[in-house]
Specification:
two-stranded antiparallel sheet; alpha+beta; eight-stranded mixed sheet; 265 residues
Length: 265
């Protein structure tokens, strides 16, 4: 694979996304209650697993895909039935990531020789990746979601545990934007082939892996300390915003009082 420079596995609406990525006991409780409600489809027989497409079917789909692809990023079919192509991944990370401190970016030599600059130092620092940055990946039909996540983290020299991240597919349905978390064994290029090249129909998004409960054991002590520092800063920012908001209200009220009493401003 080459790189060019919160939820359950079900769908969720963009409108249902939380502004802050925290799950309270209340939200977890109600989600569990809803999941336990009997479904109308409980009596349905289990669906038969889909058969894998034949080589001829894949060839036809790739030809159809390439005919609609306008950016010269078509897929190529190999004799053994595998194929390669491109996907774009949008990065929507709300939290800072951990990277090595004080080292140079990865060079072409490092990429060719598979040298990991992050392994040359134990020093760590954290920063926010640009929100909604887009990375284009060249992958094969056998590349899994897990490998895509690891490839993206390696590109940005992120040393966080890959399990902290998840890949989602984003679709538009009935005027809504819907997200579905992909399994680590899913193959994104196959999903891209089925959906066609239009990113409005299907796109991929890397987000934090929200499972409803934070697995604190997956974090190191420096990471936990860094989270506390970030939370304290966010708390101070929120306090300042609230104070500024009510100071404006106070000024307007005092101004209205002066006017009603006929006093100059």
């Amino acid at each position: 694979m080459t790189v060019d420079s919160s939820m359950s596995s079900g769908y969720c609406s963009l409108e249902e996304e939380l502004e802050d990525c925290f799950f309270t006991a209340k939200t977890t409780f109600f989600r569990n209650v809803q999941s336990k409600r009997p479904s109308k489809n409980d009596c349905k027989p289990p669906e038969e697993p889909l058969r894998p497409p034949t080589l001829q079917e894949i060839k036809q789909k790739i030809e159809s895909y390439n005919a609609r692809e306008k950016d010269c990023l078509g897929m190529k079919l190999s004799e053994d039935g595998s194929y390669t192509g491109f996907i774009k991944v949008h990065l929507k990370l709300r939290r800072p990531v951990t990277v090595p401190a004080g080292i140079r970016p990865q060079s072409i030599y490092d990429a060719i020789k598979d040298v990991d600059p992050a392994a040359t130092t134990d020093k760590r620092t954290s920063f926010y990746l640009p929100l909604d940055a887009v990375k284009q990946l060249h992958i094969s039909s056998s590349t899994t979601v897990s490998e895509v996540i690891q490839g993206l983290l390696k590109k940005f020299m992120v040393v966080d545990n890959p399990q902290k991240f998840a890949l989602f597919k984003r679709i538009h349905k009935d005027g809504q934007v819907l997200f579905q978390k992909l399994s680590i064994a899913d193959c994104p290029l196959y999903l891209r082939l089925l959906a066609g090249p239009d990113t409005d129909v299907l796109s991929f998004v890397l987000k934090e892996n929200e499972t409803g409960e934070v697995e604190w054991d997956a974090f190191s002590i420096p990471e936990l300390q860094n989270f506390l520092t970030i939370l304290e800063k966010e708390e101070q920012d929120k306090v300042q915003q609230v104070q500024k908001k009510y100071n404006k209200f106070r000024q307007k009220l005092e101004e209205a009082l002066r006017k009603s009493q006929g006093k100059p401003a």
